[in-house]
Amino acid sequence: MHIIYNVLFEMEINCVKQESHIKQESHIECDKNFSQKSNLDSHMRTHSGEKPYRCSQCEKAFSRSNQLKMHLINHNGENLNQVEKPYECSQCDKVFRNKQYLVNHIRTHTGEKPYQCILCNKAFTWANQLKIHMRAHTGENPYKCNECAKVFEGKTALAIHQRIHTGEKPYHCSECPKTFSNSSHLKCHMRIHNGLNGEKSHQCMHCDNTFTQKNNLTVHMRIHTGEKPYKCNQCENAYLQNRQLIIHIQTHTGEKPCQCNHCGKTYSHRSQLTRHLRVHNDTTYQCTLCNKAFKNKSYLIKHTRTHTGEKPYQCSLCEKAFTWDNQLKIHMKRTHTYNETSTQNNLLIEYSYEDKNWAEFISSPKSNLVG
């Protein structure tokens, strides 16, 4: 779902486009546009199937030179130069021409992370990883996309992003014909084939939440510990995740990189653009039991409970059940935290959350409630 969401979002971004994507026969092949002819030429190979870059060792062919370079790593180890490699890893078959390359490689086996951030204590295997990480604190984004002017902290992030413009998808699923622009997208996809969707082996020691990936558990644990390692260098705000900090920094810079291609409005973050796009989207979710319609599927699901009587939110102290989660929150606060107002709260619970007098009822004085 995450993959589809990202692709749909990128399609909505209104980029500066100059070079038309046209076949030799002068009819449009697809809607992609490019500011540089070299990027257009590379992209056209996705339609023509041309693969001019051929491996001299196994005769595999590729549409782009960097794909061939990545492939050659399988034959040549971690260095592409055809030179002697006297430094061999004792834990795997890889060999290196430089001792320092071997030292760096061994950390992938030992898990050693000698490069530590002085601001948030996060540690890294390589010095370059720390250098890129520090940009999250400084707000520096030195790598700029020449197609749409987006900026990135690292060269790798820019290279991955540019595949959106070129259409390149170098990561192939070994089980089905699907291809992906990002290795992490392929890993997520492989869970479908490997049956990992239901398996969540990383469990939180403080609550019942479980996660398929350890780093997701690490982020979740900060909710319990209160740790907020990502600090804004322009104010005192701190955040659980780096992406939250990046969004926050835009409040200082005024940057709004997400543009609606229907009306030109701009937003700081993709979630804001997604919400806005519902204004242009005619899709509605209609209740089959009454005539009400909703823009959001989750709103329809919640509404349906008024017909079915389903009450999935149960109080752990008195076992009362509620239709919506915020009803349970109100119940917990007013009934179990403030016992002297229990009469008022019991009355509150009897009302439907959708009752037109609900807001007035909550704000009414206690004397009016009990008559």
UniProtKB/TrEMBL annotation:
Keyword Ion transport: no
One cellular component (GO) term of this entry: nucleus
PANTHER family registered for this protein in UniProt: C2H2-TYPE DOMAIN-CONTAINING PROTEIN (PTHR24379:SF121), KRAB AND ZINC FINGER DOMAIN-CONTAINING (PTHR24379)
Protein's recorded name: C2H2-type domain-containing protein
Pfam family, one: zf-C2H2_15
Record GO terms (molecular function): sequence-specific double-stranded DNA binding; zinc ion binding
Gene Ontology biological process terms in this record: negative regulation of cell differentiation; regulation of gene expression
Subcellular location, record wording: Nucleus
Protein species of origin: Meganyctiphanes norvegica
